[in-house]
Specification:
single chain, 3-stranded parallel sheet, about 20% strand
């Protein structure tokens, strides 16, 4: 109930996790939050370290989905994985969030 009140009082919610995939659609928190935001008519952005190629993002309730990796098919055990989701990628994701927030507040 407290979460609903927080969402109702917000113009925009930002949520995310390491990977958006079919398992996410089966009830992980970011997808549940996006559904609740849609129900409450609040914009929601999902920021993910990786997005599964087999997932149809248009079937989610996110208003905007940001892939914070350089590419969508990364090996979690790869040495380069940390580089791909490092500060510069998160900074770029933050800029996208800020741009979207500005566009809905006008």
């Amino acid at each position: 109930l407290a979460l609903e009140e927080l969402i109702k009082s917000s113009e925009l919610v930002v949520t995310g996790e390491g990977k958006l995939d079919k398992l996410s659609l089966m009830g992980k928190a970011p997808v549940k939050i996006a559904s609740l935001c849609k129900k409450l008519n609040t914009k929601v952005i999902g920021v993910f370290g990786q997005i599964s190629d087999e997932l149809d993002i248009s079937k989610t309730d996110f208003d905007l989905v940001i892939d914070a990796s350089e590419n969508q098919s990364s090996d979690l055990k790869s040495v380069n994985f940390q580089k791909r989701i490092g500060p510069s990628r998160l900074h770029a994701a933050g800029i996208k969030v800020g741009s979207y927030a500005e566009s809905i507040s006008k």
